Prior knowledge:
Blueprint: H1 2-8, H2 15-22, E1 27-29, E2 32-34, E3 41-46, E4 51-57, H3 61-76, H4 79-82, H5 85-101, H6 103-114, H7 118-139, E5 147-148, E6 155-163, E7 166-170, H8 176-189, E8 193-197, H9 204-210, H10 213-216, E9 223-225, H11 230-239, E10 245-249, H12 252-262, E11 268-272, E12 278-281, H13 287-299, E13 311-315, H14 316-332, H15 351-366, E14 370-373, E15 390-393, H16 400-403, E16 410-416, H17 422-427, E17 434-438, H18 442-451, E18 456-459, E19 478-479, H19 487-490, E20 492-500
Parallel strand pairs: 7-8, 7-10, 8-9, 10-11, 12-13, 12-17, 13-16, 15-16, 17-18
Antiparallel strand pairs: 1-2, 3-4, 5-6, 6-20, 11-19, 14-15
Amino acid sequence: MQAAAAATANTNIDPAVREFLGRxxxxxxxxxxxxxxxxxxxxxxxxxxxxxxxxxxxxxxEDVDRAVRAARRAFESGPWASMSASExxxxxxxxxDLIEQHAEEFAQLETLDNGKPLSVARAADIPLVVDxxxxxxxxxxxxxxxTIPVSAPGMLAYTLREPVGVVGxxxxxxxxxxxxxxxxxxxxxxxxxxxxKPAEQTPLSALRFGELLDDAGIPPGVVNIVxxxxxxxxxxxxxxPGIDKIAFTGSTEVGKSIMSAASKTLKxxxxxxxxxxxxxxxxDADLDExxxxxxxxxxxxxxxxxCAGSRLFIEQKxxxxxxxxxIEYSEKIxxxxxxxxxxxxxxxxxxxxxxxxxxxxxAGQKEGATVxxxxxxxxxxxxxxxxxxxxxxxxxxxxxxVREEIFGxxxxxxxxxxxxxxxxxxxxxxxxxxxxxxxxxxxxxxxAARLLKAGTVWINCYNQFDAAAPFGGYKxxxxxxxxxxxxxxxxxxxxxVWVNTGA
Length: 503
Ligand code: ADP
């Protein structure tokens, strides 16, 4: 009932999405759709209406245990364990085809659950998901070992790259299906089995995705989807002795607790965490492009990106040219429900995020920063977690808004005089996920790229992603690289085999 009511509050909902939302949601364990053992549920909310979209099973340690046992069985024996690499690759490719066939449904589910504009979910999230699975479908047949030129006479040594085993994957809410794809693509290509927990704010697309696995030819138990909260469903995944590796994307704070908890069973861990990325505009850049790029760097996905360009360094000589353009972009962005075709920016994902981000807006002003534009929820909205694109000026490096990850559409503009010193200032953060420079001087651009302590550096662009290009953090932004060939390292372990050839 609630789901139907929420759905009618929006326009143009695909009939398949309406039908999906009307169903009783279950978790996927061992190829079967099941209720949580406790029978408890929680609601997932449309952040533009604050109304419930669906009741979701509230998984706990018992559900996780069932999922881990299923994943272990599927890993050790049965069709997945005996599937050839080429069959595995074909199944992953089929999964990509099926997602593509249902692209509109997935885009709408992302918009309803997360709040992002439908145009963005259609143009970015879902095509990237499809590409990602296709890319890793290709890798399934290319996970190769090596022959090692050992010195002992008569000995042949070679390596096998074997799957790690049962992988626990815990994902965030900012790109729900894309984060699922980043985690699952490489894990499946390498032959692992998985217990995946979507974020409690955005479980819908993962549950719809689970319905495609069987048609793709992925056997029961290979991908198990447990819904629930971090402490009650996420932590048991990290603690479970039957899990061999944890892959986590989320906040640095939770990443630290996961690393510590995983040490008890000495699980492998890969972490993709927060950021406070410096975006550096030199005076010799194409300033029109740089201003547009600076707006996109912070406002894409409402600033709910771990790599958001949230510290904007502008060379003093160009400050008065870039700032008016940035403010104009900020004020022109059309804020509204994601399902409205005119919307360029939707609401934040949840009331917690709304409180958190607006708390930063208050803290920034208390510390003496100036709000050049934006600053809170525009008065025309009486519900929905909307926050206007916000630019802070007059900031100091010690301010909370400059140091801490806000994870909202809030940028700190920082003028700089000394082009030699700005990279040092950019690196002055505990994070190291991404950075960007805007300049026409190719030497300066490459020098900065070498000096910036970040896992990704963009030159005269921002937020470029490709399934083939590794992504991950330096410093407290985590470790391990997702995407590209590098992700195979996360999901394989190396076995060295020695053979006495008798020679
Ligand atoms: P955010 O603060 O952006 O919501 P979190 O890091 O809290 O991000 O959450 C990211 C994911 O981690 C979610 O799926 C969440 O449920 C999960 N999570 C949160 N706390 C824990 C925890 N203690 N152990 C395991 N998973 C957790």
